[in-house]
Design goal:
By secondary structure, the chain is α/β, with parallel strands linked by helices. The protein has helices at 10-18, 29-35, 39-49, 63-74, 88-99, 112-121, 130-135, 140-153, 168-176, 186-193, 196-209, and strands at 2-6, 24-26, 54-57, 80-85, 104-109, 125-128, 159-162, 181-184. It has one domain (2-209): TIM Barrel (Alpha-Beta Barrel). Helix 5 (88-99) packs parallel to helix 6. The structure holds SN-glycerol-3-phosphate. SN-glycerol-3-phosphate is lined by residues 6, 26, 28, 129, 131-132, 163-164, 183.
Length: 215
């Protein structure tokens, strides 16, 4: 499973990238607004740090402006993947720009049916929001399993990108469900590195190592 970081914080992205296990980055208007920077500037900075798909979201709500925005955003950098929210207008725009070779990440996906439509329109990725589904009383991971199963059944090339991940267990479950990608808030990525038994084990080994001369 590929691991993306779900943030627009450049310091966290640098720290994550240094681990050597980050394959891409996803952003959204909320994440960029938190940073107090211009969207394009931050996407360009991220592209310098991580060599992989970098999702940047479109905000136009009408077909023509959305297609124009998607083309403009995609032109920023070859690694930019255009995020388009699921809707009738969104689907039409996904179909148009995907046919032009622009990679689209369909965002705000909450059902297998929405994912199927996005895949049929040619989206490179669909982003089901696990945490927000769970918050609303649904089973987010079941939606991931359904989408993976539908895509497998029909050999659809669209990748499932598990989003709105809230804790390390979500990552394990997304991987077990066969999600192609999981996008992680920095805190979740860094928490995955640790285990209390690892810390305890290192302490014991370091103490025991004092009993012999260093090699
Ligand atoms: O980037 C989209 C998604 O991952 C947002 O997550 O925690 O705001 O539901 P969250």
């Amino acid at each position: 499973m590929r691991i993306f970081m779900d943030t627009a914080n450049i310091d966290d992205i640098r720290r994550g990238a240094a681990l050597g296990v980050v394959d891409g980055v996803t952003t959204n208007p909320t994440l960029v607004a938190k940073e107090g920077v211009q969207y394009r500037d931050r996407i360009m900075e991220i592209c310098e740090v991580v060599d992989g798909p970098i999702s940047a979201e479109c905000i136009s709500m009408e077909y023509e402006p959305l297609v124009e925005e998607a083309r403009r955003v995609a032109s920023w950098h070859p690694n930019v993947v255009v995020k388009i929210p699921m809707s009738e207008v969104g689907l039409r725009a996904i179909k148009t720009v995907s046919a032009e070779g622009i990679r689209v990440n369909t965002t705000l996906v909450f059902s297998a049916n929405q994912a199927l439509l996005a895949a049929k329109a040619g989206a490179a990725f669909v982003s089901p929001f696990i945490g927000r589904l769970n918050d609303a009383g649904h089973d987010g991971m079941e939606v991931i399993r359904e989408i993976v199963s539908v895509f497998d059944t029909f050999n659809l090339p669209t990748q499932v990108l598990s989003a709105s991940i809230r804790n390390p267990r979500d990552v394990t479950e997304a991987a077990l469900a066969g999600s192609h990608v999981a996008t992680l808030p920095p805190a979740v990525l860094f928490a995955m590195v640790n285990h209390p038994l690892t810390d305890k084990g290192i302490e014991i080994f370091l103490n025991d190592a004092k009993k012999y001369s260093p090699v």
